[in-house]
Amino acid sequence: MSTHTTDRNLTHARRGEDVSVRSLKGHPELCARLQEYGFTPGCSVRLFAKAPLGGPMSFDLRGGRVALRKSDAACILIG
Amino acid sequence: MTVLALAGQANGGKTSLFNWLTGSRAKTVNYPGATVDCAVGSLRGASFDALVLDTPGILSLVPRSQDEAVAVQALRDPSALIAGCNVPDLVIAVVDMSQPHRPLVLVHQLAQAGFRLVVALTMPDLARKRGLFLDPARLSDALNLPVHVVNGRTGDGVPDLLSSCGQILSNAQPAPVPDLPDASSQEQIQADYAWAEKVVAHSLHHEQEERRLSLDPDRILLNPWVGFLAFALAMTGFFWAIFAAAAPLQDGVEFLFGQMADLAARTVPAGFLADLLHEGIFPGFQAVLVFVPQIAILFFLLGVLEDSGYLARGTVVIDRPLAMLGLNGRSFVPLLSGFACAIPAMMAARTIPGRKERLLTLLVIPLMSCSARLPVYGLLLGLFFHDRPGMASLGMTAIYLGSVLVGSLACALLSKVLPLPATDAGFQIELPAWRLPMWRTVTVSSLERTWGYVQRAGGTIFAISLLFWLLNRYPAPDHSFALRAGHLLEPLVAPLGGDWRIAVALLAAFAAREVFVSALAVVFAVQGGAEATGTMMESLRHATHAATGLPLFTTATLVGLILYFMISMQCLSTFAVFRKEWGSLKIALAQLMGYVLAGWLVAVAAVQALHALGIK
Predict the structure, then answer these.
(1) Helical H runs in B144-244?
(2) Of A34, A54, A63, Cβ closest to residue B98
(3) Distance CA B616, CA B614 (A)
(4) Class of domain A10-78 (CATH, top level)
(5) A65 and B218 in contact by Cβ < 8 A?
(6) Domain range for residue B125?
(7) Does the pTM exceed 0.90?
């Protein structure tokens, strides 16, 4: 586990910004599923778009595009 | 029999490959939206005989939704689908090389579990554009498995893949029994991805084309507000096309029936058979088949939306509004399919991981305006706006919007009272690359689905029309069995302003909603007898209550009947499928009775309110 105290997660990413996944925090099963989608520590992710009214966010990673609810994206901490 | 199983992620090209392996004549079991059930077909064009098993997409061997559970179970033990087959002889792992990491992690898991594997690399064109073209020889070297590039659009590479499969099968021992993991540890997933990254780095082709920046429709369609607008436009266009484009085809169907009736009148000698054709079979069929063009267009457009990749985007745009109702973006495809038919729609709900969200979706699907209601609304609106066809199509739009509204209300209400805890499975979806739809496949499969509809509905309509005609005709039209049954039920429809004829048609419509139309057609054809004038519409429009001589299909009664059909679950097949999908007879019965009762209450309330306002 990292000793960083900043809790910057994927919902804080800016559009078009490349960020790197640092770790995941939340329900273990959800964390496992998010990693199965490719959000593993060290992976480079770019926010592509946000749906209105706080809807899902779409990310580009590993050649593909995946959309996550904001609450899911909040489980993915970035460095 | 040798069994080849296909395994891989959603949208990875499994079904295209399946179609190449089996020929396009394979039975279509999956409706547009998602592959949620397994399909089995005979292998064609190979030097050996085998059955091919297509499975729903999976992310890993640890399933988290019902469609994934179906896939994993089929790979573990296909004996329920193919008698005598306890393990697939060979698994073709489908790897979309335009985003290779995730599918390679699955290949790794399949290999670890002990499956005998061949890798099919799909989406070569897209991978070239993204600078991720993999060299099959290098990948084969890294994986220690046979690897073949196949193009799902052209079929290139399929023969090589097959000869490789044949080679493996010809000198192989029986396939080993796989040992599947029960849970996936986060450390394992991370290790698998680290491995996949190395494999991809090792296997990248020396010569990558320069990455081309292509137009990305997601810039517009996932744009916060423009995307919302585009979604509304897409849905409006979708329903508009169903009505506008179908109109000339519907005229064609009517013309055809007119010709057939003429021919029958000229060739069949007067008597029992002529009466049966004239009063039973022709009116019964024409009333329903005239809506087949709309149903075909509905299936076609759903197929186009799916094939292009738009359905996944719609899912993202609509997730937030659906979440407010207690649903999930993943409910969108089942609900949209519900406008075609509740049965495949309920199966599509397997992709929803949360139990509560899935149950809620299953419960409200029957409120979506399915294609079986089209003939009913067409008839009722035709009676309402007989001289203004433009108003009738506006009325149909209003009914569709109304069914969405009623569904939303029911959802909001049910999500409060359902005893299930909300499961926080969240919402994740992979957005497949945009593609031009494969027009031939979409056309063929929508025609096949329409034909399936005609066969299914046709059989019911034929049987019911025949039975209904007999019941109306015997012992005599003025004291027939149907008339007696109708009089028994009349108190139930009297508050709607209906009479025994509407009562028996509603009863018959539990076989299938569209039977309401054919049943009415038969009742009026028989009752009309000699003085039957003009078309069925004419005789319905001039129908009166026998006792009072007042018109039967008044404004209030038509509104009541439309509301009743919007809510009531006049479909015993839906009941059976709900029971199978959710596994509870109690909830299935509650759903059936609840909607029938609610539909009746709402309809009666509306009719009585209109009467009180002086609208007859």
Answers:
(1) 158-170, 186-203, 218-221, 224-244
(2) A63
(3) 6
(4) mainly beta
(5) yes
(6) 3-203
(7) no
